[in-house]
Amino acid sequence: MSACDAFGHVRDSRRRQSPRRPFHRPLLFAAALCALGAAGWAAEGGAPNPAPGLVGIEEKLGGRVPLDLTFRDEYGNPIELGDIIACPTILALVYYNCPNVCDLLLTGIAGMIRGLDAEPGKDYRVIAVSIDENETPADARRAKRISLETIERPFPPEDWRFLTGDRLAIERLADSVGFRFARRDGGFDHPVSIMFLAPDGKVTHYIYGADFLPADVKLSLLSARQGTVAPTIAGFLRFCFRTDPASHRLVFATLRVVGSTTILLTLSFAAYLVLSGRRRGKRIGGRDGGRSGHSP
Prior knowledge:
By secondary structure, this protein is α+β, with helices and mostly antiparallel strands. The chain is built from 9 helices and 13 strands. The chain has helices at 3-17, 24-43, 81-84, 101-114, 137-151, 167-176, 214-226, 234-240, 254-293, and strands at 56-57, 70-72, 78-80, 89-94, 125-130, 160-163, 179-180, 182-184, 187-189, 193-197, 203-208, 241-243, 250-252. Helix 2 packs antiparallel against helix 9 (254-293). The longest helix is centred in the C-terminal third of the chain and has 40 residues, at 254-293. The chain is elongated and about 90 Å long.
């Protein structure tokens, strides 16, 4: 083999090896970005499902509320849930002296009722239950009066009940629907949601927030009547939003979403670099092989 040929083969060998080298640094850079994104995600709360003990909703679709739980009605009379959950039921866990978001939720329910083309007592019933064991039937009566007035049309009082109860009953009911709340500064941190129950107490659907479309509610009530579970986009909402402890409102989880998007884009870019590098290496190797076959 001539010196020229030997030099040519050395040069070709270097050329065949060279495509592998440029990808080390981009991959390390991608790994660093992934680590930063993961750290940001963790700082904003990590996984979309709430950790044990945190405020939020852990959906328990298909589960059942204990119908033997006893609460007090607006006049202090004992009443079992099974006596009033006799048709599709909308359940709202609130507390009547809440300074902000509970009023919004009850007002939202009143507005929903106003535009709902369904017969109360037959097609649906609403039950509000206080999560504060210190609230009284007088608090319930006041909240009921304001809520019924907000509907701005006649509504059967017996089809929107406002209940209070002891701590054990409240905790059992909240746990049965995955409603996690915590006492804070004389009030409560809690999620904002309504739950739909079938006549047998089965949890069939959740709607989040305090604004409701009558059409969505009607479909949810139909599912409750049939006893069929209607999954929600709660996982997506928990991932993209978090509950602000101060305002009790949903806020966009910027760091979590940006960090996760960075991870996805970085991994996609790294995969592109690796795959395109392999294709380039094969093309160069093929050309070099062809040249070597024609060497004198």
